[in-house]
Write a structure and sequence with these properties.
The chain is mainly α and 212 residues long. The protein contains seven helices and no strands. One of its GO terms (molecular function) is DNA binding.
């Protein structure tokens, strides 16, 4: 006979109480660690502070991501037991404080480097767009030159008998060909630059602390 395993699911009252305790502890840990809500939310992986604000206020009783507890414990340098309300030990040792300050400094340096890179990409994109716009008119002029050259030959059949006529014609065709290729490459580079500016990491669905 197969054994039936019954999974314990916290009752609504118990779940609400635990969420409020965890929200309170998350707020306390954040304040002692010296983070404002916006900065903490960004470091924890949120795009803004609204979700973290609801969790800290204990108003979001439906779900708490498991990854948030782990990240918060690491970021604030407190124990997971403390965040769950099972311990009052902050674990704020001198080493933990030093590590937190180092981590904060590294994050700030990374953020500055990232912003500098994005500014460089934007400047490059502006230059590519300017050159692409110029190449547009250059390409149109090259096409007009090619058309005019062919029309000139039609009106002057003896042109082909002139010395250097074939060389001149091949040069005109070459200009049109190279201009077309250059314009295509610049458009590709412009799309790549635009793609970098629009780049965004999509977060994967995270496991929840409670599930019915």
């Amino acid at each position: 006979m197969a054994r039936v395993v019954v999974r314990y699911i916290p009752k609504t009252e118990e779940r609400t109480r635990l969420v409020k305790i965890m929200g309170k502890r998350l707020r306390e840990a954040r304040e002692i660690a010296g983070f404002n809500q916006s900065e903490a939310a960004r470091r924890l992986g949120y795009t803004n502070s609204s979700k973290l604000a609801k969790i800290e206020a204990g108003s979001d009783t439906n779900s708490i991501p498991l990854w948030l507890i782990i990240r918060a414990a690491r970021l604030y340098h407190v124990s997971i037991d403390f965040l769950f309300g099972e311990s009052s030990d902050w674990e704020m040792s001198a080493q933990a404080i030093s590590e937190r300050e180092t981590q904060k400094w590294l994050f700030e340096q990374w953020e500055q480097s990232r912003m500098a890179d994005m500014n460089s990409v934007r400047k490059l994109q502006d230059r590519i767009n300017a050159v692409t716009e110029f190449m547009k008119y250059f390409f149109e002029s090259a096409v007009d030159l090619d058309i005019a050259m062919k029309r000139f030959i039609e009106l002057n059949p003896e042109f082909n008998e002139l010395r250097g006529s074939n060389t001149l014609l091949s040069r005109v065709n070459r200009i049109a060909e190279l201009t077309s290729k250059s314009r295509t490459k610049l458009e590709i580079y412009a799309e790549l630059a635009n793609g970098i500016n629009r780049f965004k990491i999509d977060s994967k669905p995270q496991p929840r602390l409670f599930s019915d």
